[in-house]
Automatic annotation (TrEMBL), chain A:
This protein may play a role in the biosynthesis of the prosthetic group of nitrogenase (FeMo cofactor). GO terms for biological process: protein-containing complex assembly. Pathway: Cofactor biosynthesis; Fe-Mo cofactor biosynthesis. This is Nitrogenase iron-molybdenum cofactor biosynthesis protein NifN. It comes from Roseospira marina. Signal peptide: none annotated. InterPro entries: ChlB/BchB/BchZ (IPR050152), Nase/OxRdtase_comp1 (IPR000510), Nase_comp1_CS (IPR000318), Nase_Mo-Fe_CF (IPR005975). Keywords: Nitrogen fixation. GO terms for molecular function: nitrogenase activity.
From TrEMBL, chain B:
Keywords: Nitrogen fixation. GO terms for biological process: protein-containing complex assembly. Belongs to the NifD/NifK/NifE/NifN family. Pathway: Cofactor biosynthesis; Fe-Mo cofactor biosynthesis. PANTHER family: NITROGENASE IRON-MOLYBDENUM COFACTOR BIOSYNTHESIS PROTEIN NIFE (PTHR42956:SF1). GO terms for molecular function: nitrogenase activity. The gene is nifE. PROSITE patterns: NITROGENASE_1_1, NITROGENASE_1_2. This is Nitrogenase iron-molybdenum cofactor biosynthesis protein NifE. Residues 44-443 form the Nitrogenase/oxidoreductase component domain. InterPro entries: Nase/OxRdtase_comp1, Nase_comp1_CS, NifE, NifE-like. This protein may play a role in the biosynthesis of the prosthetic group of nitrogenase (FeMo cofactor). Pfam families: Oxidored_nitro (PF00148). The keyword Nuclease does not apply.
Amino acid sequence: MIPTDSRRVETPRKALTIDPLKVSPPLGAALALLGVERGMPLFHGSQGCTAFALVLLVRHFREAIPLQTTALGEIETILGGTDNLEAAIRTLATKSKPAVLGICPTALTDTRSEDMTADLRQITQRLGDDLGETLLVHAPAPDYVGGLQEGWAAAVRGIVDAAARPRPRRADHVTVLAGAHLTVGDLDLLRDTIEAFGLTCTLLPDLSGSLDGHVPETWSPVSLGGTPRAALDDLCAASAVLAIGEHMRPAATLLGERSGLPVTVLETISGVKGADRLVAELSKIAKRPVPATLRRDRSRLLDSLIDSHFAAIGQRVAIAAEPDMLRALVTLATDLGCRVPVAVTTTKVPGLDALPADRLLVGDLDDLQTATEEAGGCDLVIAPSPAIRAANALHAPLLRVGFPQVDRVGSQHDTFAGYQGSRRVALTIANAITESHAAHHLRPPAHHHHHAQTEAHHDSATPVAPY
Amino acid sequence: MLTDRLAPVFDEPGCATNRAKTDAQRKAGCKPKGPAPGAAAGGCAFDGAKISLQPIVDAAHIVHGPIACEGNNWDNRHSASSGSDLYRRGLTTDLTELDVIQGSEKKLWKAIRQAIEKFDPPAVFVYQTCVPALTGDDIRAVCAAATERHGRPVIPVEAPGFVGTKNLGNRLAGETLLEHVIGTREPETTTPTDICLIAEFNIVGDLWQITPLFEALGIRLLSCISGDARYNEVTYAHRARASMVVCSQAMVNVGRKLQERWGIPYFEGSFNGVRATSEALRTFARLLVEQGAPADLIDRTEALIAEKEAEVRRRFEPFRETLAGKKVLLYTGGNKSWAVVSTLQDMGMEVIGTSVRKSTNHGKDRARDLLGEEQKLLGAVPNAEMYRILREGEADIMLSGGRSQFVALNARRPWLDTNQERHHPYAGYEGFLVLAERLALTLDAPVWDLVNGHAPWEEGYTP
């Protein structure tokens, strides 16, 4: 049996992080703000804070990324950066005219403990009409706590706080707070699933409108799409609030308080049970039976699990991802009968200890490699693209997920959610394992390929191509 | 104080921009205007310092800061290595709130020890970032103590992001090498043809397009700063007989101080294109002979240049027709803003504008000479204007870095990466041909007709 006591998530206090799994929370906040139509994130920090996040987002999405900086120098950092913040907001509000301007503090401003809430209130007063239609959002996501999903969660909560106003209840409409682990492809599937019940929805944020890789008709200095500005005023005009991912809970709770609507947080909508919970919930909200198309999708998922389990059962899958993505992936892998000897994540959150993995660590990609070696190796690694080094060292293929994926195009269209996304992942895992094992078939037993340490393994001439 | 050490870096006599200043302007430093909040682009000083030193492949590079400084940033340049890949590992102290409150010097001390125990590198570079600089971590002291304890150099790189731009960071990295690295060890042997390359980062193997030329001439690359470098060879730079500053904007201070301290003559040059490459080889030959190398080096260099240039002309033929007359918008920096102009002109292309916003005055002069018209020297071009130039067909293709690529791509025009994220080496004679081929393939790619065509239900549709 897998132990499930809450102390078992290991959080080694390491002085040296080697090959980080984490990216910075402000990067996550920026990404969420890019999921709002005419959105623009502004980092309150030194130029480099923005440049690094910008370059990484570009490398992953291969799209233009609107992202600006208050460009703090040493003097402003020491004396206080409020003037820079005001100047940046004024410049952006009058020139780029974003619908939503998201202010993301960085470690630099956090260390100085600037009172951003007060600063922003005063700046708003001073700017007056210069601010125009621009809605200011405060996305407090310190660099020190967590990674992308924590920053994303803070930005979404900030948007709800700035925009949500009491509205009359709107029948058959769902306000969905979408977690950072959902891809553009997942959001498309989620919307289709909701609409299959005759419901309409507002997705917040909605990267499927902005970072879905379409060719725009003109150049835009702000995000190219996403949750419409008007829909932000109407976040409370719904019949229910649905949050996808545990990290969406704070935003969902706030929206529940503002709207008085019933709130449901679904930790994951991946795997049979996760997708079932989503579909059952929608059926309840719509007061309609589950439509035939979704029943068929479920049946296809079950069949793909049957087809995939032959390759997958007993296979050892090491996984590294942010907490809510990890939840989805561990669920999918273990549904297939895989064993997860090691799961690495970025931050300790409630509920992780219940995941069926042998070892759970908060750590980096070197921990992924080292812990998996200690556990006797693995057959497949599931992680963001920088894990290619660890995967090669483990002689296992890499299935790329999460952020970043810098050596793939179109990863935003990969799906993980619902019946369809789960089916795709199940088949992908089975195919990756089959392909990797094909190289070893019909070889003498001396080349028996995994459980690492034998010399035959390391001397094997088997090519170890990245997945 | 860091500010004390910054002052001499601002006053760089090797920098033409600086020479053109009044005393008062010079004292004000390199960032009189400073970046504009809400309208700035580009990296910070830490970024520049790391770019300059990280290509030293066998060293451990530890970033002392919160996760943003390394987690968003590691292994993101295509500097190539012929050996160790330790330089590609993402090593950081990943500071937490608790570290900041308690002080993070001890954590850094432990991190250095862990890196040495795990990787056994010949040297460790420790990069200061804004947060520990703000809280007053003394990384100089930690590095000095660690050097003593571990019996190998542990080098503080003091260029926290907020002290200035990427370019300032490049120079601070140069100062770091001059203070802690260059001249600390001696090569086993020296030759009359030992050279040093400065600010050549071996992006996708650029350097390896050049090294066969040196080898053919019997010139020894004693020290490369810092592409594909081993730590030891950087310490030998003071024994070179001549040095070349490849990206003069980045590290001219190193070239000048090598001359000042050790009498090594230097020149600013480029390996971008045929003309620049030949000129660089010629200059090296002349300087080395002046320093005592056998005089026949000059004739042998001319013979090699003649042979290579003839070969390039022959092998360029298949691309000539595709490239002839095509209009290029060049949006890049450093020596590329003029060197690539001459390259493209040699290919028969027309450069409608080149951005000199990140060029030295020397670079601007060269670009002006090549283009003939002042208005073709561009400053920062707003994205909307860049989009218009491309969409309306004033340029057939844009050459730039990754960040501006989407302006061209959204305008549905061809784009080619000339910066550090590219996948092909463009240096030297071979690189000229690689660039010609990439340009031809990009311009001819069928995708441009498809994305500029119309759907059957749209106006302008042609079957």
